[in-house]
Design a protein that fits this description.
Low-confidence stretches: none
Shape: globular
CATH class: Alpha Beta
Helix content: 40-55%
Number of strands: 8
Distance between the termini: 24 Å
Strand order of the largest sheet: 1-8-7-6-5-4-3-2
Bound molecules: 3-hydroxy-3-methylglutaryl-coenzyme A, magnesium ion
Strand content: 5-15%
Radius of gyration: 17 Å
Number of helices: 12
Number of domains: 1
CATH superfamily: Aldolase class I
Length: 296
């Protein structure tokens, strides 16, 4: 049966913008519960400056303390060599570099131009590959930028292609502020796949305008098979005001199973995990399926 690989963002993208420090033991429990749901790829930490994103300062503790499930990839964001060294020491299985299709967003997010970011990533990729780690490359603002507005598909394809040629094993396409709509998503993907094979592309859609599931359906129809999502729709981006979380994992799994696409995820467990973390954070559950679900 046709299947989709889900990359779970809850512990990283989901928590990075929480205003109150989330206790480390809750982060650890979240990662463990997500793995118990059958998710095989969990972005568990972020090795960025603790001055920029204080919420993620305990990444090493999280990665070293989690009970690891065999077959699960626990990954982390690493914007530079310093971050990579910390990720290696903590035992990350995969790392990710991140840049943007928009110059303004790139500067706000990682304090350098897109060209400088690519230069910075060269030694990160080299060292990561020397250690046998896969490297993901994120392109933010692929369907719109909070500072520059519309972004052309050609601009996204340029940056995605550059990351791929640099050696990134997979490119994740981020609709950071969730302004995209299906036709735009298809146009963007059509341009990017001229530069990067479709099998290496992931959709990372935020749901700010309620379009994420529609956009995902559109790119699934184009043959894309890797999706980033966040349990209970947790999240937001510190450098994209008003942006809400990634599309909720529960809603994505419900959609995929309805389409006859396998995920390996136990939806009942995932719903319980989403309800649990929403309660712990005092947040309204952002997953529609999480609110509606009653086990048979
Ligand atoms: P900078 O200030 O230009 O870097 O920041 P620097 O090299 O000049 O270092 C400044 C200070 O940060 C120094 O400390 C460094 O040691 C420290 P000081 O001497 O002042 O005490 N530092 C670090 N500390 C820990 N780990 C590191 C690290 N690097 C430097 N790796 C930097 C550049 C990239 C570090 C900074 O801009 C940063 O941390 N930005 C954080 C950006 C971020 O985390 N954004 C959210 C994640 S991206 C996202 O959510 C989008 C995504 O989901 C896709 C989508 O939705 O579009 C992926
Ligand atoms: Mg994101």
């Amino acid at each position: 049966m046709d299947s989709v690989r889900l990359v779970e963002m809850g512990p990283r993208d989901g928590l990075q913008n929480e205003p109150v420090q989330v206790p480390t033991h809750i982060k650890i429990e979240l990662v463990e519960r997500l793995a118990d749901c059958g998710l095989t790829h969990i972005e568990a930490a972020s090795f960025v400056s603790p001055k920029w994103v204080p919420q993620m300062a305990d990444g090493s503790e999280v990665l070293t303390a989690i009970r690891r499930r065999q077959g699960v990839i626990y990954s982390a964001l690493t914007p530079n060599v310093k971050g990579l060294e910390a990720a290696l020491a903590a035992g990350a299985d995969e790392v990710a570099v991140f840049t943007a299709a928009s110059e303004s967003f790139c500067r706000k997010n990682i304090n350098c131009s897109v060209a400088q970011s690519l230069e910075r990533f060269t030694p990160v990729l080299q060292l990561a590959h020397e250690h046998g780690l896969r490297v993901r490359g994120y392109v933010s603002t692929v369907l719109g930028c909070p500072y520059e507005g519309d972004i052309t598909p050609a601009a996204v394809a340029r940056v995605a292609g550059a990351l791929y040629r640099l050696g990134c094993d997979e490119i994740s396409l981020g609709d950071t502020i969730g302004t995209g709509t299906p036709k735009k998503a298809i146009a963007m993907l059509s341009a990017v796949r001229q530069e990067v094979p479709l099998a290496r592309l992931a959709a990372h859609f935020h749901d700010t305008y309620g379009q994420a599931l529609a956009n995902l359906y559109a790119v699934l129809e184009q043959g894309l098979r890797i999706i980033d999502s966040s349990v209970a729709g947790l999240g937001g981006c510190p450098y994209a005001k008003g942006a809400t979380g990634n599309v909720a994992s529960e809603d994505v799994v419900y959609l995929l199973h309805g389409l006859g696409l396998e995920t390996g995820v136990n939806l009942d467990r995932l719903v319980h995990t989403g309800r649990w973390i929403s309660r712990r954070l005092g947040r309204v559950n952002g997953a529609k399926t999480g609110l509606a679900w009653h086990p048979n």
